[in-house]
Each structure stands twice: as C-alpha cells, then as structure tokens.
Design brief:
Layout lengths: L8 H8 L6 H11 L2 H13 L6 H9 L6 E2 L10 E3 L4 E3 L3 H5 L1
Parallel strand pairs: 1-3
Antiparallel strand pairs: 2-3
Length: 100
C-alpha cells in the first residue's frame, strides 16, 4: 500500500487483506513506514471490504491519518469518482475492482 506501483495497485492490496494476516503486525509495519496515506488506504479497504478487524485497529489507523486528501491508488488515472471523507481519500478505483 506504500508503493502500489510495485505490487499491482489497490486491487492487489485489497486481495491481500482476505488472507489470514496478523493484523497487529500489519499495523506495526504500517506505522514503521511513516506514510500516513498508507494508514488511509488500509483503513478504507478494511471498511470497504468489511474485513473483520478489532475496533482498536481502525481507531489507531484513523488517529494516524493526515488532514489532506490522497489517492487510493496513485497508479490509476487521477480522476476521483468520489471522496471518502472518513479516510480522506480520493477514490479512483471502482469498488468492483477492489472486491475481486
């Protein structure tokens, strides 16, 4: 989610969230990156895909985001179809592509 151009973009990141992941480790690594947009992307995808995540994880991700808006997928065309005001993201990938 930090460098989506190297991993297939937001659709591939979304697919990875369906695997059994150690969510606390994912949050730890997200914090280590120091990229607040990663917190936004991860929180947005967890909620969009209805991933079972403890509430403390979503609270933590939300607390770490910045006030500006970032792109859900910087590798996709820069045409926002909507804005996620909760996660402060410009959505430029169709939900259908993220749901696999």
């Amino acid at each position: 989610m930090d460098l989506p151009q190297h991993s297939g973009g937001a659709p591939e990141a979304a697919k990875s969230l369906h695997f059994h992941l150690n969510r606390d480790k994912v949050i730890e690594y997200t914090d280590r990156l120091g990229n607040r947009t990663v917190h936004k992307r991860l929180g947005h995808l967890i909620q969009l895909l209805d991933i079972d995540a403890p509430s403390h994880i979503l609270r933590h991700l939300k607390a770490e985001i910045s006030s500006g808006y970032g792109w859900l997928d910087p590798t996709a065309p820069k045409e926002a179809t909507e804005r996620d005001t909760t996660w402060r993201l410009k959505i430029n990938v169709p939900k259908k592509a993220l749901n696999g």
